[in-house]
């Protein structure tokens, strides 16, 4: 069975401090993993993806994520938050060869000045 | 390349009516998926079309249907609208082969309000 758990529904950080958004997954097959960001009233934008190459994946806007198979985690990080990072973030798992995508429930990131 | 486009961007309908939403994928993409997003239920998968065939389906009633044309453009239809159908409907396109490394690209969505 496939599932995604985003451990925090809301995260609040101050501008300039690190961001950590946590994601755990369950997949019966070798998965591809993605992080998407959604700004208010907009569609989802791909931040980064993991597809069994390097375990540390760099994305756009300074975000990166590390795939840890032993912990079944794919946490999203950024060293220094910017006000424009305030948005909702979705972790997505897609089991290999199935072209199905399973979305987490989302984490809303608030960035305080 | 142009991104995924969805029309219309906003719709207001009354209960009992039907509605058709349109999605044009990125050029060369053959898979189109539809999602419903609401504050209470989050993102829910409706269905996926690949080469004019429905390949995957979520858990929605038969009032929700879709189709894909030979140019990969897709439409979804909701008949007999209910208040609970008010949502942001998102379309996503991907290359669509069986390799799951094909990420999805999302359109801006159609905001449907049912009164």
Please characterize this protein's 3D structure.
The complex is a heterodimer of chains A (113) and B (115). By secondary structure, chain A is mostly beta strands. In chain A, 0% of the residues lie in helices and 55% in strands. In chain A, a hairpin with a 5-residue loop joins β5 and β6. Chain A is globular, with a radius of gyration of 13 Å. The model of chain A has no long low-confidence stretch (mean pLDDT 91). With 115 residues, chain B is mainly β. Chain B contains no helices and eleven strands. In chain B, strands 2, 4, 5, 6, 9, 10 and 11 form a seven-stranded mixed sheet that branches. A four-stranded antiparallel sheet of chain B has the order 1-3-8-7, with no helix packed on it. In chain B, a hairpin with a 2-residue loop joins β5 and β6. Chain B starts with a strand and ends with a strand. The model of chain B has no long low-confidence stretch (mean pLDDT 92). Classes of the chains: A mainly beta (113), B mainly beta (115). At the A-B interface, β5, β6 and β10 of A face β5, β9 and β10 of B.
Q: Main interface pair?
A: A-B, 24 and 29 residues
Q: Characterize the main sheet of chain A.
A: 6 strands, mixed
Output the structural class of chain B.
mainly beta
Low-pLDDT residue spans of chain A: none
Q: What's the quick description here?
A:
The complex is a heterodimer of chains A (113) and B (115). Helices cover 0% and strands 55% of the residues of chain A.
């Amino acid at each position: 069975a496939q599932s995604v758990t985003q451990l925090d529904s809301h995260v609040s950080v101050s501008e300039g401090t690190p961001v950590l958004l946590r994601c755990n997954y369950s997949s019966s097959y070798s998965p591809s993993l993605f992080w998407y960001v959604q700004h208010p009233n907009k569609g989802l934008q791909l931040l980064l993806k993991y597809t069994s190459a390097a375990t540390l994946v760099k994305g756009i806007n300074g975000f990166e994520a590390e795939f840890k198979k032993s912990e079944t985690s794919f946490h999203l990080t950024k060293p220094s938050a910017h006000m424009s990072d305030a948005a909702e973030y979705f972790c997505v798992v897609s089991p290999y060869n199935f072209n199905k995508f399973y979305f987490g429930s989302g984490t809303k990131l608030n960035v305080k000045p | 390349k142009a991104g995924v486009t969805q029309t219309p961007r906003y719709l207001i309908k009354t209960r009992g009516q039907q509605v058709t939403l349109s999605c044009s994928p990125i050029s060369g993409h053959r898979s189109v998926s539809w999602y419903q997003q609401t504050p209470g239920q989050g993102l829910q998968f409706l269905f996926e079309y690949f080469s004019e065939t429905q390949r995957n389906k979520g858990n929605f009633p038969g009032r929700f249907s879709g189709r894909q044309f030979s140019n990969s453009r897709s439409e979804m239809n909701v008949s007999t609208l209910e208040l609970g159908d008010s949502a942001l409907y998102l379309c996503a396109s991907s290359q669509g082969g069986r390799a799951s490394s094909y990420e999805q690209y999302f359109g801006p969505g159609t905001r449907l309000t049912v009164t």
